Structure formats: structure tokens, C-alpha cells
Amino acid sequence: MKNLKLYSEISQNLELQSQQEVLLFSAFDFERNRLFFASSNNFIYTADLSSFQKGKSKSLLLASSVINQIELEDGDLITAFDYLLEKEAVIIGTANGLLLLHNVDDNSTEIVGQVQGGVKCISPSPDGDLLAILTGFRQMLVMTHDWDLLYETAVGDGDGLDVSEFDGKDMFESSVSWRGDGKYFATISEASDSSLMLKRIKVWERDSGVLHSTSDSKIFMGAVLEWMPSGAKIAAVYDRKVENRCPDIVFYEKNGLVRSSFSIKEAVDAKVESLKWNCSSDLLASVVRCEKYDAVKVWFFSNNHWYLKHEVRYSRQDRVRFMWDPVKPLQFICWTLVGQITSYNFAWNSAVVENSTALAIDDSKILITPLSLSLMPPPLHLFSLKFPSAVRDLALYSNNSKNRVAAFLSDGSLGVVELPDPDTWEELEEKEFSVEASISETGFGSFVHLTWLDSHILLAVSHYGFTQSNCASHSSMGEDGLSGFYLLEIELVCSEDHVPSLVTGSGWHARISRRNYLEGLVIGIAPNPAKKCSAFVQFDGGEIVDYASKLGLAENGGSTKHDDMSFSSSCPWMNVAQVSDSGSLKPLLFGLDDIGRLHFGGKVLCNNCSSFSLYSNLADQVITHLILSTKQDYLFAVEISDILHGELESKYENFVHTGNRRKEENMNFINIWERGSKIIGVLHGDAAAVIIQTTRGNLECIYPRKLVLSSIVNALNQRCFRDALLLVRRHRIDFNVIVDHCGWQTFLQSASEFVKQVNNLSYMTEFICSIKNENIMETLYKNYISTPYQNRGGDVQAKDVMGFDASSKVSALLLAIRKALEEQVSESPARELCILTTLARSDPPALEEALERIKVIREMELLGSSDPRRMSHPSAEEALKHLLWLSDSDAVFEAALGLYDLNLAAIVALNSQRDPKEFLPYLQELERMPSLIMSYNIDLRLHRFEKALRHIVSAGDAYFSDCMNLMNKNPQLFPLGLQLITDPAKKMLVLEAWGDHLSDKKCFEDAATTYLCCSSLKNALKAYRDCGNWSGVLSVSGLLKMEKNEIMQLAHDLCEELQALGKPREAAKIALEYLGDVNSGINLLISGRDWEEALRVAFMQSQENLVLTVKNAALDCASTLIGEYKEGLEKVGKYLARYLAVRQRRLLLAAKLQSEERSINDLDDDTVSEASSNFSGMSAYTTGTRKGSASSVTSSVTSKARDMRRQRKRGKIRPGRYVSSSFIPRFLSLIFCSRTLA
């Protein structure tokens, strides 16, 4: 689904030696890019093709041409001509049989042989090792490049022809063609019975000259024969005049059997004079002589159909001939008898235009297919437009309801047609509409780069003053003798009123409203969507100039050169994207050159691009994504914002896939499964599709995840929830994207609108079952699309809106949807099942509430109620089965038990296919119990201990022991038990049991308080003593009314215990207040370094010896601290210097490792795995080897001994010893902390 677009056409002239002289033969030297021509006056002309690439638009004589004359005998003339690459010379055959080797560089000619009957054809083998020569006697001579004859054979059915019988009408026709690999060659010759001009194609083996195969006798046209370079087909031409039909091009296989054929669709008297394949074997060109003109036609084969993709017409007097470039498959050169040489450069352009409509050129037809309706590869199409002659170029204008197609035809006319609204195109299926050529008073020349500026203005580059344009124009030299290239602005007017539902293809008038002469060669034109009646014109070399309809180009002073948009080289494929940048619209220009470089903004985005397209998911057609494929068959969807912000290298790694599987998950590409596939277009908006065409011709539709998610997000931003849901279902996207796009708390406010728009309970059930607590925008799709914003404070907002604490995403969403279903959807069985789904999928599942709803339905069924609501609910069995399908059957059974409805539990068990032997005895046992005890046992089974406690307390005093056992096993129930139990004596038992539990848990303070509440003073005293609360111990001793000596002994014991626990100050307080021992108290205060308190007590006692003792102890402590401070200061200075050295060394090592990181990343997975295993546990200071893990394993005894040595050496850091960068700061902080504590 592509068209062959002509993007450059350059003509130059050879100056012949006389007016009667004509060019007869041509040859090509692709190494030095030269063309050789042999003339009727035996001159050899050499033309340097570099002058074509460097030439200006205006016609010039070939200044670099070299002319050599071949001296021949009178009456002798050149009959065969070719170039031998190995000899770097041309080989010439004459009518007298001479074989001449002519060196153009030194103008020397050498006679290398002579054959009888004259030389009819010379054909070198593709590898240049052999030379096939066809003589006038129909003898085939095969020689080496050293002129040694390998063999000679007759190509006709007889033994050869006498020279007097030779018919010279095919003298200049070659009838020998080699296969691309040179192993075979084919000839065409008359059959034995030539009365009907029957001929045969014969295939010969290269080395032996043995006849390999022969075709059936057919009426072939002349000696036209061409073997496809790939070797698949041999092309020839059938003459169908006897059948009153135009010629057919037929294809043979190597075995001589016909493979296929097609008609050239010309008049009966048309003659195919030559056939030539391009070097890639995908294009077949021919010269067709018609009654009024000669045409060079180019065909392309795809999907078992031959398309005429391009046609160039010349006048019959020019006798045009052509040749393909041997190495450039999309370039051919035409030349005329009088020496005009024209180079045509083509490019394959996608037939899919901006509105996803395919406009495929096939001869005089344009096959139209809107791909948004159906993916139909040509030759299939929805409808077609038929023009008076072959279509060379086309352009589509599509804006709002206007759709117009302009086509430049091979006869030089312009065809315009207005199409109806695309919504009505389905009514045009399988129809063909004839289009008349527009009426114009002047000739247009030869068009390239046809483009719409507006609905009534066309812009094109026209080639004036050359024979092919003269044939196309109404005058011989164009209007007013114009010559060269001009930029034409053509105004269109239709004299007929357009009917919206019909095709308008007649009544169009075209007038050239503006003409600008072009100095440079134009490579492409693209309309500027940001400015009306404006376009970007690309000149050779990539320079971009802005063209405005009212201002014209530089000559009129109205153009603007865009250096920031220009390309660094010529880009035959160019496209303009209108994008949004910070809220403003601006155009971006993308160009792809012929070596695969994608240009943008003066730089290269991708160096290995094979095709690209632009995608928009917005209604205003603002481009949001660049879609490109690489030569490695990877497809990338690039956000325009990434291009504008310069994030391509970080996100797409220069569009090069290194094969590292660890990075594949993060790569934004799709692996195209068929090699050589190209992007031909996209489906914009919600379709979110990329259309590729494989080399076989079939169309494939790809839905890149990034484009699909972009379309979904766009629909959500517009609050089109149903459209978003349909996209999610169609493309199997996680439903959570609808919720997580802007935060689920925000979605809660739109839940009612969501349910109202979707209005499909089946879709709602799918959505409900897919909700999960994970935020997939930050996990599953984080590499495809970014979350626009995070809804902060969402929990509070959700709580205010919905009236509950929204701590769970699933529960909050399903509650909101459940309320919306009850409000927005009328009662029906489907709605009830959907509500049950929301309850079953809650987190945790609200199974009891769901069973309550089922219980209500069951009760209505048992009562036989005629309530209309009964009909709006499903049956209880259906609802229960639905609930069991969504939930775990055991959980549903336990939830039914939790309702204390044994009948319902039995129904659940039966519907969950449980064995009655498992559940019936248990249910029967429960049924025999009193109601409260049954509830108590069910609560114990379901671990609902608070309810169990309430039920067992309500059962009476007889079950108090069970109540105590329950609280002892579940201590969290003690506060509730104290609230439920009203008997004071039993409360005391509960408190004492609670205190025992707290004591067992080492919560002695709380245990003591609990014991005091139940007047268990001894236990309280023990608890206070266990927790070291000496004041509480002495207080309880007072409550116990202990004797004084007992209290003194208790105080003495407490003092010793506190001193042992490292609490000298508290021990001193007991010694002073309870024991009255001043000396012991002051000594304890000195040991605790509480100097002020020690002095206070000493002065209070008025004892000088105690004061002196405190002073001496304080002086000793001060001198010790000063010494430790000086020692610590010295250590800090030494360790700080050590830290700086280690830090500097680590920074140097990090820089070195970072520089080697790329080489490590280039390793394959196995190498990286091996390297990582060898380097694990290593560092810059490791002294071990890398010989494997076995050598590093030591016994546990050795490891323990090493740890003990390290413990002993802790606190020492020797120079050269391994230390981490964080060890020294930690060591310094320990020194500081130890000094502070001291």
C-alpha cells in the first residue's frame, strides 16, 4: 500500500556533433558514476552523472562530457555496445563483425576479434567473467574476459542462418539476458516454423552451453527479454494483435513454463520496445511506443497484482530509451535520440494519508480505502476514481466535511474531484467514478510535489522546457518559452454545485495564480498546519523555507528561512506535526533521508529509522506521538513531549536494542515479527493503531500499549467513562487504569457518573472483579504513561464524601459503586447480582452483608410473597451460587454460621458441594444447644472472641468458669469482661487474673496497679519490687502496716539492689531518708558524681570532713576528665586525617569504576552473571583472590575466632587496614558519646 513518488527530476543535454546524429546505445559505469553513449556517427560520449546531482534546476549542457570517435570502415556501424567493469573500457560490436575494446580515458581502441555475420548483441555476465555475443548468423559465442572462446552454439532451432538471410529489423535489440547469479542465461529466437512469427525462449547453462529448457512457441514482440536479477522470473512480451488485444507482459520460469502475465492496457497497435528490472527486482520498467507518444512505464507487483505506479510520456520523435541505475533501485535515466538525458529519483511513499485513508495509484485509477472502516490491502478497495490517463502524483485535502483529491496525470493535465463526507463512503462500495481533467488555458509542465495549501489552492513544482514536459503541456516550450523549475500556485474553481452525498469530478477550472522561479532543487513540500495557505519547502541539502500564499518565496521578499527546522541532508520523506508546547501550538518538521536518519530541529533523532508516522489522540488533530520503526524491526511510540524536553536518550537509548534481557522490560518498543515491514499509517484517536505492511503485501494492525493508554487517559480526562471502559475491554488493559489515572480518591466523586455512563451491568461486573489495591500507574504501566498528578489528602476527601474511613481502595470504591448502582440503576436481577459482586470483592469480603441480602430473598420465597420486588430479584439459589462463584466456599459457610442461621449455613454447604457427613453432625449439635451457647460456640469457631464473651456472660453464672478460661486464653478481653460482669466478687477475681497475666508478661507497673485495685497488696509489693519502684514498695509496706525493723530491713535491701542496678542517687536517698546513714549516702552521691547534692548534705550535717571528702573526689574526677579530653583530641585529629585519605581513595575508585561501566554493560547475560559471582563480596581493599567461592569458605570455628580478635581490636585503626568510609565517622561518634556520658 504505497505509491512511487517522484521527488527529483533533473534534465541535461549532450551537445551532439551534427543535427543528423542520434544516440543509439548506452552503458553505465557505476564505479565512477559515468554514462557512455554510442551515436550513429560512431562517436562515444561520456557523461559524468555527478553533474546531475550538483546541477541547478535550469537546463544546462553537460560541460563534463567527453567525446571520442571510433574509426570504422565506410559502411560499418556500431551494432552492440556495453561496458566491461574488469577492463574499465567499453566493448563495441559492429555490423562487419569487429569486436573493439575502447578505453575512454586514453582514447585508445583495440581490436580484440572479429565474428562472421556481424555482431548483433553483446551481453556480459553479471560477474564480468564471461561475455555472450550473438552474431548475425544466430550463433551464440561465449568468451572469457581474456577473449578465449568457451563454446559456440546456435540459438535458433536450425543450424544457423546465412548472412544474406539476416533480417536487420531487430538489429539493435538485445535478445540475451543473464540470471542475477550468472549461472544461466536466456535467449529468444524464431521457431523452426516461422510463418506465424513464432518464437521460443531458451535457457542455457553458463559453463557448458547445454540447453537447459525451452518454452512453447509463442508470438513474442520483437526480441524483448529480461531476466529478473533475483532469478525468479524471465520477462518477455506477447504480441496480441492477432487477437485484437494490446500486448501482454509474460513471465517465465527457468524451466520454460509460463508463470503469470498481465496486460499493459494500451491500444492494440502499441509496441513494447524494452523491458528492464531494477537492481532490487521489485520494479519493472518498459518503453511502450503508442500512436501519439512514447511512454516509460514502471510496474510494481504486490498481492498477486501488477500496478502501474508511474508513467512518463515523451513525443514519438524523441524515441526515448532508459536504463536503471545498477546500484540505486529507485533511480532510472531516460535519454532521447537528440541527447537529452533526464535522471529520475523516486521514493516509496505510503499511500495512507493523514486521515487514515489509503489512496493507492494503479495506472489511471486511484484505489480508495478508509482504513478506519476496514483493513483491505490493494488491489481490494472500497471505491475507485478513474482519470483520463495514468496518475503520476496525487494530494488529498481533508478538513471538516471537505475532502478533495487532486491528481497530476501523465498527459500533463490536472484532475480534481470532491468526495462526499467520509461517513457516507460505505454507500460507495465497489463503485468506480470517472473524473474529467480540469480546464486550463495554459500548460502546467511536469509536476512534482503536488500539495494542497487550502481547499481551492494547490502548490507544486513544475518542470518546463524539456521533452517530457513538452509532451505533457499544451505548448512546445511551456507558456511564454519557460524553461527550468518553477513553484506554481494553482487556483481551482468548480463550475458545478457539489452535492454532499455525491462525487464531483467534472467542471473544475485550474488557473496558475502565482509562479516563482526556483534556483535550487526542491526535495519536498509539506503544508504548514499552523498557518493558513502556508507550506514548508525543502531544498536540496535539507534547507527549509517557509512559503506563504500571499508572499511567495525569497524572490518576492516573503519567505522565511528556518535554520532551526532545516535538515543536515536531503530528506525525501518529510512530514509536519502540529504540537502543543506549554499551551501554544507550533509546527514541528520531521524528515527521513535515504540512509535511515530521522531529522528534527537541526539534529538527528534516530540513525537507523526505516519508516515513521505521526499519531494524534486528540479531537483537534494535535500530534501527540511520533511512531517510528527501525532497521532492526523494532517499533517505537515516542511522546512528542519527550522530544521537546530532550528525554529521548534516557528513555529510548537512541532506539538501539542491545539484546540485554535485564533492560527489555523497560524498553518502549514492539518487536515487529516480520522482517522488512514498514509503517504505512496510523488510526488516530481511540483506534490507537499503527498499520504496517509486510514485504509480502499484507496489512497488519498493531496497537502499541503506549498509544492505547494515551487514548484511555484522554477519554478519562474528558470524563468519557464508557469510551474508556470499552477501550480497556477491547485491548485487555487492566481496569484499574480507570481508577488510578488521577487517584482512586478522585474517582470516588465520579462513581455515580461512571455507573450512569457505562449502563451495562455485565461491564460493571468485569470492572468490579478487577479492582485491586495496587496502583498500576506506578507499577504495571509506569514505563508507558505518567500519572498527571497525585490526589493528596485523598483519604480525608473520600471520608468526607462517602461518609466512612477510606483506608482501603477496594472497599471504598466498591462501596461507592454499590451506592451508585442502587441510585442510578433500576431494580433487576442483574443489578442485585452486581451488588452481590461488590460485596464479595470487598477487602475484606462483606460476605455477611451479602448473605443477609440472600436471606431476605429466601424469606420472600418462603412466604410466597406477591410483592413486585420479588420479580426484580434473582432466586435465592441463583444469588447464592453467584456468591459462591465469586468467593471461597469455606468463607461463605463460616459467614453463614456467623449469622447464627443454621438453615442458611446448611443451604450454603449443600450448594458448595460439601459432603453432608462433614457438616450435618456439627449443625445438629449446634441446634441442640441453647441459643446463647450455640452463638458462643459459633463465635469461638469463627474467632470472634468479643461476641463469644458477651454471649457466655449473658448465659449466666453457671458458665463463669468458661468465661474466665476465655479471658485467660484471650487477655485482650479483660477490659470487656470487667464491663460485662457486675458481681463485685467476680470482678475481683477477674482483676487478680488480669494482674497475674500482666506479671507473666513482665508488665510489673501495670500488674501492681491491677493488684492494688483488687486489694492484693502482697502481690502488688512483689510487682513493685520486680520493676525497681522503691517508692511504690515502701508505700505498699505502709499499707501492709509492717513493723519498723521490717521496714528498715526492706530499705537496706532496696539500697543494695539499687546500688547494684547502677542507681546510686536513688540508693543514697534511701540511705539518708530511711536508714539515716550519712556517710554511706554521701559516698553514693560521689560515686554518682552528683556533686551539688553531696555538698548540700555535707553542709547540712555541718561536718568538715565530709565537705573535704567531696572536694577531693571532685578534683580527682576533674583531672581524669581533662586527661581523657586531651587523649580524645589527639585521636580525633589522627582519625580525621585517616578519614580524608580513605574518602579520597574511594572517590578515585568510584570514578574509575564508572568509566568502565559501559564495557561491563556490553557483556552478555552469562558473562555478567559470571563476573558478578566472581566479584561478589569484593571491594577495593579485599586481599582475597577471585578463584571462586570455594576458596573463600572457612570453617565456623575459624570465623568465630576471627570475630573474637576483632572484638578485642575494636577501637584501633591502623594505617593500611581495611576500613569502610562510614566506619571512621561512627568511631568518632562513639568517642564523643563515651566522653559525654563520662
Automatic annotation (TrEMBL):
The keyword Transport does not apply. Residues 1-157, 164-326 form the ELP1 first N-terminal beta-propeller domain. Residues 1182-1212 are annotated as: Disordered. Residues 935-1096 form the ELP1 TPR domain. Residues 1203-1212 have a biased composition (Basic residues). Residues 705-926 form the ELP1 alpha-solenoid domain. GO terms for cellular component: cytosol; elongator holoenzyme complex; nucleus. It is found in: Cytoplasm; Nucleus. Gene3D superfamilies: 1.25.40.470, YVTN repeat-like/Quinoprotein amine dehydrogenase (2.130.10.10). It holds the Pfam family TPR_ELP1. One of its GO terms (molecular function) is tRNA binding. Residues 361-680 form the ELP1 N-terminal second beta-propeller domain. Belongs to the ELP1/IKA1 family. PANTHER family: ELONGATOR COMPLEX PROTEIN 1. Component of the elongator complex which is required for multiple tRNA modifications, including mcm5U (5-methoxycarbonylmethyl uridine), mcm5s2U (5-methoxycarbonylmethyl-2-thiouridine), and ncm5U (5-carbamoylmethyl uridine). The elongator complex catalyzes formation of carboxymethyluridine in the wobble base at position 34 in tRNAs. This is Elongator complex protein 1. It comes from Salix purpurea (Purple osier willow).
